[in-house]
Specification:
The chain is of the alpha+beta class. Helices cover about 40% and strands about 20% of the residues. The chain is built from 14 helices and twelve strands. An eight-stranded antiparallel β-barrel has the order 1-2-8-7-6-3-5-4. The protein has a four-stranded parallel beta sheet with strand order 10-11-9-12, sandwiched between helices. Strand 4 and strand 5 form a beta hairpin.
Length: about 425
């Protein structure tokens, strides 16, 4: 996979920072991890309080008298806890990432339906910091308070519906001394009517929290694309899966290259729906006699619902490409008059990061992290205004108007943690190269 200029060096520097913590984690996890069963893989589980628990899997019981701190509240409750982690699919470039993302997306939808509706679902990450770039694998922790056979059979049916490489099914249990273990089950290729096969029993051991959230190094290759080329690569892999992807690429190809902003000011107004953007943009446009534009532009917003129902990597590539299409319009219109834009790159990046980083807001990338850097090939505005409003007032406005909501807008209404992370990201300063 070809890295963008400068990204490889950044990941190497990040790895050097993480090396001491990884070494300490490995000492804790013991050297008894067998090949293919926990070796070089670390895990992050989202706890009921939205904190994170870090652990690894190893063969021996060691000399510790207890399980990982925090995991007990997630994995040792009455009932049964399972894990599913989607393995990285083989394939060069973005092909493997997209296949894994679509499988994860489908499993999430299935695990939200019967017979899993009485179960609780938490997010799980698996990553290997042994060599950069770090690639995270996404999965789930499923807690079945009833520990019923119907749930186990339904999980096996999910695995049968997966193409290779299939996820492994983990089952957590505690031994007589209170140590936490995970049984790993898999469905062999060509199993036919055969059931799941036990491939290992591994102890769950705590590891130290890395200096950065494990998903952060992966952001430029998964949701916060640093260039048109990277976002375009995602859609090129999607043309056989989503016909509208080619339509978007055709519009991108019609945009002029190496565009420059005109002499008139370009003003971006950011904010959630129902924060008053329409009123403010209309007033500002009237006073300045400005041209009003919106991202994504109408030429691609007709397919918005289609891409909003796709995995994050595809959805974020759609919004990124929309920014580059609107940039060509900005360049043209700003030669004749001021330009006012309803949302731009900041919204794209904020929603992407808030969605991808599991856990509490303090796990977000620190201020001045490279992920906040404005893409070098995207036209920059002169002024950016962020509109805010009381959350309760905003919800009342939305309900009163009956306006349609994006997937992120719907989550903002019901997910307090997502609101907090998005709000925190909206105040992070961006750097423009």
């Amino acid at each position: 996979m070809a890295l963008i200029p400068g990204l490889g060096g950044f990941l190497l520097r990040l790895w050097e920072r993480m090396r001491p913590q990884v070494a300490a984690a490995r000492r804790q996890a013991s050297a008894a991890c067998p090949p293919g069963l926990g070796q070089d893989r670390f895990f992050v589980a989202e706890l009921p309080d939205s904190g994170l628990a870090h652990f690894a899997l190893c063969l021996d019981a060691g000399d510790s008298a207890g399980g990982p701190s925090g995991l007990e509240s997630l994995l040792l409750r009455p009932g049964r806890s399972y894990s599913l982690c989607v393995p990285a699919a083989p394939g060069a470039g973005y092909s493997g990432r997209i296949r894994a993302a679509r499988l994860h997306h489908r499993l999430l939808q299935q695990l939200s339906q019967d017979p899993f509706q009485k179960c609780q679902l938490r997010r799980l990450l698996s990553y290997s910091p042994e060599s950069p770039p770090v690639v995270t694998e996404k999965g789930f922790i499923l807690w079945d308070p009833r520990d019923c056979l119907k749930t186990q059979r339904a999980l096996e049916a999910l695995l049968r519906g997966c193409e290779a490489p299939r996820p492994q099914l983990g089952v957590f249990e505690a031994d007589h001394s209170g140590l936490l273990w995970q049984q790993l089950w898999e469905l062999p290729e060509g199993a036919g009517d055969e059931g799941l096969k036990l491939v290992g029993k591994l102890r769950v051991v705590p590891t130290e929290q890395p200096p950065l959230h494990p998903s952060v190094p992966d952001l430029p290759m998964s949701v916060v694309f640093p260039s048109l080329e990277e976002a375009r690569k995602v859609f090129e892999e999607c043309t056989s899966l989503i016909p509208e992807a080619q339509e978007v690429l055709n519009l991108v190809d019609k945009c002029p290259k190496n565009i420059q902003k005109g002499k008139f000011p370009v003003i971006v107004i950011e904010g959630l729906d129902a924060t008053g953007k329409t009123t403010v943009t209309e007033k500002v446009a009237e006073v300045l006699n400005a041209v009003f534009l919106k991202s994504p532009p109408p030429c691609v917003s007709q397919w918005r619902k289609i891409f909003d129902n796709e995995p994050t990597i595809i959805r974020r590539a759609y919004y990124s490409l929309g920014n580059y299409i609107i940039a060509s319009e900005i360049a043209k219109e700003s030669t004749q008059a001021p330009v006012i834009i309803d949302r731009y790159w900041h919204s794209t990046a904020a929603y992407a990061i808030a969605t991808e980083i599991i856990g509490l807001p303090h796990y977000l990338p620190p201020v001045h992290h490279p992920v906040y850097q404005w893409p070098k090939d995207l036209l920059k505005p002169d002024i950016i205004l962020l509109l805010t409003v009381n959350p309760e007032e905003r919800i009342q406005r939305i309900q009163g108007r009956g306006i349609s909501k994006t997937k992120e807008e719907a989550e903002l209404e019901t997910n307090r943690l997502f609101r907090e992370k998005t709000s925190a990201l909206s105040t992070v300063p961006t750097s423009c190269p």
